[in-house]
Amino acid sequence: MKKLLDPKNAAKCGTRILRVIHGRGTHATRCKALVIAITLVAGLGVEAQAQSTTASGHGQSAQQKKASPELSKSYVCPMHPDVKSTKRGKCPKCGMALRPAPAETSAAASADSAATAKNETAAGAAPGATQVSASDGSRSTRKMVIPDVEVLDQNGNQLHFYSDLIKGKTVAINFIFTNCTTICPPLGATFARVQREMGDKVGRDVHFISISVDPLTDTPERLKAWGAKFKAGAGWTFVTGDKQEINKLLNALGASVARREEHSPTVIVGNDLKGVWTRTYGLAKISQMVGLILNVMEGKTDESLTKEIGKP
Questions:
Q1: Which end of the chain is more exposed for a tag (fewer CB within 10 A), N or C?
Q2: Does the pLDDT value for residue 66 go beyond 70?
Q3: Region 50-65: what's the mean pLDDT?
Q4: CA distance 6 to 4
Q5: What is the pLDDT of residues 285-297, one digit of tens each?
Q6: Which residues of 218-229 are buried (b: 16+ CB within 10 A; e: fewer)?
Q7: Residue 253, C-beta contacts closer than 8 angstroms, at least 6 positions apart
Q8: Which of 67, 98, 117 is the last residue of a domain?
Q9: Average of pLDDT values for 188-205?
Q10: 53, 136: one domain
Q11: CA–CA separation, 211 vs 220, rounded Å?
């Protein structure tokens, strides 16, 4: 049949068949030739339609590719949206690595959201976990689950994060790693200055927590030595632990990143007893940071203050 459907062969066969039909031969031979002729014509029609459909498909595909020009990439600082660049690099204000603009990472963001939701569901099922609302400055409120994972403090003590460090307390949480040479030292210095400013309230009315985003490197001993550089007092706990447990914690707190250098200079301030949580810029003015913590201690947040802190 393939040979018959070839245009050249079809022409030859057609000529022969017409000769049989109009020329010599028995009645049976003529009938058989007629059937072959009808089959040949039908086959040619199907083949032509298939070729037309294929050509049309290729044409549409080419048009779609032409109509979808390649998007130009742009990068922004996660803490300073006004800092933009067409190339990868670091923010001149805070030293953070620039990240792809949100429009280009929508698919990745959806995947991250799904992963976070899955982690939050798992964490919520664990005993001792609490679910709270965290106001992200001028951004919309989102729910956050704090899992009761096992961690180690700077003295090597094994603790349960929620039960021992969060439950019923007012806390200020930042994220660091000891090998960091950009934003982590300023984050530590900010906590140290706030600690001095608030005096004996730290450790009594509010507790500071610094969570390592590099638990494989940051042993309790390393964290203790790092904290000593900033004269960390009794109310300031440094947290590390098993990588999987720390990753679960970072995911729940919205601080998980692919590379440790990309972690955000964010401080989470919360009052677990009153269910008040907010997050803000970790390198804010000391007076602003102290004012925000005092508000949260009283169970309230001043939105105007939170937004102002978010503008370094």
A1: N
A2: no
A3: 51
A4: 5
A5: 999 999 999 999 9
A6: bbbebbeebbee
A7: 144, 146, 173, 211, 268
A8: 67
A9: 96
A10: no
A11: 11
195-201 contacts: CB < 8 A, separation 24 or more?
Answer: 195/232, 195/233, 195/235, 195/236, 197/286, 197/290, 198/290, 198/293
* Same domain? 161 vs 240: yes
The letter for the amino acid at 108 is A
In angstroms, the CA 163 to CA 185 distance is: 28
Cβ pair 143, 131 in contact under 8 A:
yes
Pick 197 or 85 by higher pLDDT.
197
**Domain assignment present for 108:** no
Predicted local distance difference test score (pLDDT) of residue 115 = 45
Domain carrying residue 201: 128-309
Rounded to the nearest integer, the mean pLDDT of the chain is 74
Q: Which 3 state secondary structure label does DSSP give 83?
A: coil
Please indicate, yes or no, whether residues 166 and 255 belong to a single structural domain of this protein. Answer: yes
> Are residues 157 and 227 both part of a single domain?
yes
CA dihedral 49, 54, 59, 64 (to 10 degrees): 130
Query: What's the token pair of residue 147?
Result: 């899992």
pLDDT in tens, 249-289: 999 998 888 788 888 899 999 999 999 999 899 999 999 99
Number of domains in the chain: 2
Both 136 and 230 in one domain: the answer is yes
Distance, in Å, from the CA atom of 185 to the CA atom of 197, rounded to the nearest integer, reads 18
**What does the pLDDT average to over 79-106?**
66
Closest to 76 (Cα-Cα) out of 59, 98, 56, 54: 98
The answer as to whether 161 is a domain residue is yes
Residue 47 CA, chain-centre distance (Å), reads 50
pTM of the model: 0.59
Identify whether residues 279 and 143 lie together within a single domain.
Answer: yes
Residue 175's SS3 state is: strand
What is residue 15's predicted lDDT score, i.e. its pLDDT?
55
Nearest-angstrom CA–CA distance, 89 and 87: 6
In this model, does residue 42 exceed pLDDT 80? no
- 189 in the same domain as 259: yes
Question: What does the pLDDT read at residue 73?
Answer: 79
| Run of H or E residues at 239 | strand 236-239
